[in-house]
């Protein structure tokens, strides 16, 4: 496994899904997954999906600036650290953000997010 | 173990050490530790210490804005995600940054950084 390739592919898939079909993001979590979104913690597929689909904006576009990653643990996990900007529909300025994912291999050969932490970087 | 308490205590200790005695940071890593600093990867206590002490500024002051954390793995690890600003001596404006730590318990009852990823958030 090449952690950099896993990280790049996952990040691309995650943000494309977020920006085009946010309701499908639930498939990238499992019931032991946790999300911290701007400090609010939720756990499990249902609660995380509800949080993400309920965010108070409809259309958005993520633009990625940097992707860092490191392998994590003997089971083939990958820690991914992303910085970028988020353009919301109707807003003049993009919002800068940072986000980290702890990716864990699934029995099906893909990865899910055990941990997802998102923060806007306010000026 | 309270992951939030571990995270807060570690973050306070790390940045205080960084700002007052950077050469002592090496004691917070072990030889399987990795550092990604602005995309440059180093591994092991000696290489990480050399990278941190060789950064091209002398005095600095970190100010922390947010600390998020989640427990990680059965062995008592903690993932910590920090945002804040970094004031360099002689510079007018502080630099915003994000950083993540994967903390692992030591046999002595403290924690070391298995993974450390740092990024400036450019405007």
TrEMBL record, chains A, B:
Gene3D superfamilies, sorted:
3.10.450.50
Residue ranges of the NTF2 domain? 6-120
Q: Which UniProt keywords apply?
A: Cytoplasm, Nucleus, Protein transport, Transport
Cite the SUPFAM superfamilies for this sequence: NTF2-like
UniProt superkingdom: Eukaryota
Nucleus: present as a keyword of the record? yes
- An example Pfam family from this entry, by short name, is NTF2
Per its UniProt record, what InterPro entries does this chain match? NTF2, NTF2-like_dom_sf, NTF2_dom, Nuclear_transport_factor_2_euk
Where is it localised?
Answer: Cytoplasm; Nucleus
Query: What does the protein in this record do?
Result: Has a role in nuclear-cytoplasmic transport of proteins and mRNAs.
Q: What is this protein called?
A: Nuclear transport factor 2
């Amino acid at each position: 496994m090449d952690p950099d390739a896993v990280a790049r592919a996952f990040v691309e898939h995650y943000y494309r899904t977020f920006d085009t079909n946010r309701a499908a993001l639930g498939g990238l979590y499992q019931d032991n997954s946790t999300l911290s979104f701007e400090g609010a913690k939720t756990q499990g597929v249902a609660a995380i999906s509800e949080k993400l689909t309920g965010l108070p904006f409809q259309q958005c576009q993520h633009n990625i600036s940097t992707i860092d990653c490191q392998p994590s643990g003997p089971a083939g996990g990958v820690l991914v650290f992303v910085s970028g900007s988020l353009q919301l529909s109707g807003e003049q300025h993009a919002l800068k953000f940072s986000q980290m994912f702890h990716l864990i291999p699934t029995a099906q050969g893909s990865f899910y997010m055990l941990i997802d932490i998102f923060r806007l970087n306010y000026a």
